[in-house]
Amino acid sequence: MRETSYPVIEVFESIQGEGAHMGLGADFIRLAGCNLRCPWCDTSQAFNVENVRTYIAEELLQVYPFNQPMVVITGGEPTLHDLGPLVAGLHHRGKYVAIETNGTRDVPEDWQVDWVTVSPKPPEYAIRCRADELKYIVDDGFELRHIQRDKAADGKVFLQVESCRPESAAKAYAMIIKNPRLHLRLGIQLHKIVGVE
Question: Does the predicted TM-score (pTM) go above 0.90?
Answer without folding.
Answer: yes
